[in-house]
Specification:
about 10% strand, alpha+beta, 8 helices, about 45% helix, about 190 residues
Length: about 190
């Protein structure tokens, strides 16, 4: 399942590295507590994306926990009140391998397409570097499924890297376009 959440009024949710790190710690606890399998994530200043595997009920409960815990932390840290996120998380069920593959690059290319980073590799608050074999995998991230879409072992890692890099040159499409089979992905 592709789950994503945006900041209220598209306002920044993550202000500095401390915020990104705190959210990743919460993700780690949420993955363990709710029995998720996390295949990918990307944190952007005003939203985030997750590629998860679990029952819909466990994802729903976990997302409430993750967003609620982080919102409480943000409001305390910045002496604020009110909503941090614009509403409940949104989700897309992933039922086809093609959609899974496209999300495997759509998610890490978010900062590139937003012109926050030159490459997926340069954006630290993302699972890309671990999945691409460039850094150690955090304990809450599973990399085998996405790598296996492109081969076994080193071949899968190289294939994943090439697939994401190729996506950086394809015109931008939204995640909704991926589901409907439109846009620049998957040509």
């Amino acid at each position: 399942m592709h789950a994503y959440t945006r900041g209220n009024n598209r306002s920044p949710v993550f202000v500095d590295d401390f915020d990104y790190t705190a959210w990743l710690r919460l993700l780690h606890r949420t993955v363990r507590r709710f029995g998720w399998t996390c295949h990918a994530f990307c944190l952007m200043p005003n939203h985030y994306h997750l590629l998860l595997e679990s029952s819909r009920a466990r994802i729903s409960a976990g997302m409430r926990h993750l967003n609620g815990s982080f919102a409480t932390r943000v409001n305390l840290r910045y002496d604020r009140t009110g909503h941090v996120f614009e509403g409940p998380y949104r989700e897309q069920l992933v039922t086809e391998q093609r959609h899974l593959a496209e999300l495997a690059r759509y998610i890490p290319l978010n900062p590139v397409r937003a012109r926050l980073s030159a490459t997926a590799e340069d954006w630290r608050p993302s699972s890309y570097r671990a999945t691409a074999g460039l850094e150690r995998r955090p304990p809450y991230l599973t990399v085998t499924l996405l790598r296996s879409l492109f081969g076994r072992g080193e071949e899968g890692i190289a294939g994943y890297r090439a697939f994401v890099a190729e996506g950086a040159t394809i015109p931008r499409a939204t995640s909704r376009d991926l589901v409907r089979g439109r846009g620049g992905f998957g040509r």
